[in-house]
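Readers of this paper often ask what the protein records in our data store actually look like. This encoding replaces a full spatial description with a residue-level series of whole-number codes. For reference, a complete record is included directly beneath this paragraph.
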Amino acid sequence: MAIGFAGPVTATSEKRVALVIGNAAYAAFPTLTNPRNDAADIETAFKLLGFTVLKGSDLTRPDMLALIARFKAEAKDADTAVVYYAGHGFQIEQRNYLVPVDAVIKKADDVRSQTIDLSDITSSLDGSRSNRLIFLDACRDNPLRGSAGQIGLSSQLQDGLARVGSAAGFLFAYATQPDNRAYDGGGRNSPFAEALLGHLSVRGQDVNSMMIEVRKDVIAATGGIQVPWENSSLTKQFYFAPGPAASLSPETQLWQLAASTRDPSLLRVYMDRFPEGAHAKEAQQIVKVASLDPTIQSASRSTSDVDRVSDDRLWDLAQRSRIRALVEFYIERRPDGRHLTSARELLRSLPSNEDADLKPEAVCERNATHPRDATANTPGVPLGELARNGEATVAACQSAHDAHPEVPHYAALLARALAATGQRADAIALYRSAADRGDLRAMVSLGLILETGDGTSRDPKAAYALYARAAERGSPDGAINLAVALLEGHSIARNPTRAIELLRRASDAGSAIANYNLGVLAERGVFKDGRALTYFIRATELGDPRGFLSAAILLDEGRTVSKNPGDAAEMLLRGAASDTGEVINQVVHHPDSWSQDTLRSLQSKLQSVGFYGGSLDGKGGAKMRQALERWRQTGTMFLQ
């Protein structure tokens, strides 16, 4: 079956070398919070991906030079050479300088003698046969800002780093746009490092696609204030985690592992990570039943189902998710697993829940993040759940806001917490303040309040202006909300052409909902580009399972594409495993809406994995329910 779970990351014989530096404890410049953590966690991730890592933290200039010299020697014959630097950095006249912890700069000549010129590292990689990837999380506040004249520099210093790189074979990835600043982060890691960690291990994703996902996560985590940027001249695709991409989403994989084993701890992990997931209600029901019958819990611990899941698959899911409880589950259930050493190493780099609860910033982000701002590491919380933890969340967000007044996103998170606890006036005031300072979530949330008149006077014109501003700054939600208004024509002139343009912009930014909406509009003929199926499939890849059923319909009917019963059945299987039950409802209760060829192919696929024992009559109906329900809860988890 084509839908089978893809195998583990393929071992590679190529030589991979990485230089990782995290400088935080500066003698003459402001101390940074997270670079040591960032470097340690990136080091672990690189090691698990087959890199030889040369790593240092809080390095003096002689120590940095010595480590860089070792890296240059290792990188000469490497297939892939990667540099990750976290710490202070600045630009002068389009040259970037990395700052050792012992740097003291009192005059212009000190810049060269006290820092490391980035070009001294990259020039040694020119002309090599390797992919050269440079990740710079070094765009914190310029430590020399405002002192150019004092130290004898002819030009004023800018924040951030300068755009560099033109030689073939390089990718330069910056934590934020050139000339802009990036945040150190209020949790364990900087927003850029956290996003990288969330995507480095995604199998079958090339580095350019990975950077799109990293950018989405950082934009969501910072309210759009920080936008990672890269300059690529790579001449071939590079995969940190080579191998075929998984056919099912991490959510579906976690659900099927938890549901098939009936393990309450895994089901709770699923509910915590995907509070609005397609299987959240099912997970809640299983846990509720288990809590009423202790024998179910003990049975789940001794079940042999977990033993049927291959070691590679269980580790692949744990490594990709970076969920502490899932890594612990692997260690507990695989005491002789071939990835046990790697699992223990990964576990050491993951903060415990107790550690996370110590920082108000982490509590605020975990409890108040909007579900549409979910990242690989922060799931987002529905408003009702936020209200249940409202008092503690308001306190945490207030502390985070007070500690970081320069970060408008904490104001937006505090506003959401206040709104959830009924403090509408204070919430609206904070949303306005955060929106005025550029926070995208605040713009969209305030726009919704003004559009609906929720707690204040309706002002659709102001709402649409906020959506437009958010869309212009890269918010998919702002673009989608404005597009819907332009299509409906309420309190604004209808403009389908502009609406499609906005949806395409959101699609390019990686929005699953925008892709799904484009598929619907293309299917209905609102615009014609022949890509309805492409939009639906892209929506599923980005996390919207509704696209599976829509894609299956097109393939079954041959609408806008050639009829393909086999592919239609494939989409139905993926949808049955991933959506909230729509596919099963369609096949069981509306079998006449499907061609017999598609249903026969579906029956054949289910039969091949032992889930269906009836005849291949292509009739569907109630006799398919048990097979599809079994597929929904088990799917490909046990397929070899």
Summary: The radius of gyration is 26 Å. The chain has 32 helices and nine strands. Residues 174 and 628 are 46 Å apart (CA to CA).
